[in-house]
Each structure stands twice: as C-alpha cells, then as structure tokens.
C-alpha cells in the first residue's frame, strides 16, 4: 500500500509543473491587467477581427459572458464568449467559452498576426498580395485556434471531459464530475 501512495504521489508531481506553469503564466499576464484594460482588449479583438475579415462571409464576435465578471475575483471567474457568425445569413455557426488565460493567449495570437498583415498591407503596393494576406486571417482559422485553446483544458478527475470550471488552483473539472461530486 505504501508503494501505491508513492506512485500516486509521483503521478501528481509529474503533472504539477505543467499546471503550475500554466497558472503562473495566467497570473503573470493578468496580474496587472485592470478590468478596463480587459474590456479594452475584448473591444480591440472585435475591431481587429471585423477589419481583417471585411468582405468575407464569416465574422467573430467576442463578449464577456453575462454575470461572469461581477465578482471581485473576476480574473478567476470571467468567461469570454467567442461566436462565429455567418454574415450573410446571421446564423451562429460556432460558439466557444474561454477563461481569462485562454483569452489572453488568443489575444496575443490575433493581435500579432493582424499587426503583421497590416504592416505588409501598408508597405505593399500589390493589391493581390494584400488580399492573400488578409485571406490567411479568416474567422474560421481563428475559431479553430479558439477550439484548440478550449479543448486543451481537460477534467483532472476523469481526464476525458472538457473542463467547464477552472478553480484558482488551476484544477479543471467537467460538469459531469462536478455533478457527481
């Protein structure tokens, strides 16, 4: 029995650095982020994605999930909804909910990609080159990145379901396990 406890402890220790590292990055990135700056980043992503996909059939919209930012601990519980909408029909094609860490990662990805595309378009005189660069920034590609970020979070109990709740300690749980608990 003593060996089992030791093996289980070792398994926990092997997983801890990644979770701790992820949590440290979240704390570092969000530590000095004010609520107003956060809302500014949400608005900035909406502006960037609208500009980058103008003329395309899809559009991404970012919004703070209602009520998720009403706590004094908003950085831990806030959720950002990313919705992909078909502009011609107005139909929602996909929607994902991100925590602050995932949102910060996506924010970095999109702003760096957009700044590169905008820098190329301001220096290039060939309109075909500009359109191919903008085409590489489609809403569907960004939504794929959102899916990738949100799929990475798995329940630390069943290791199967997608985490619906992430505690301040960085443990993630799916709704099924929460209901059982």
Automatic annotation (TrEMBL):
Residues 155-181 form the RING-type domain. The keyword Transit peptide does not apply. The gene is Rnf141. PROSITE patterns: ZF_RING_1 (PS00518), ZF_RING_2 (PS50089). This is RING finger protein 141. GO terms for molecular function: ubiquitin-protein transferase activity; zinc ion binding. May be involved in spermatogenesis. GO terms for biological process: protein autoubiquitination. Keywords: Metal-binding, Zinc, Zinc-finger. CDD domains: RING-HC_RNF141 (cd16545). It comes from Crocuta crocuta (Spotted hyena).
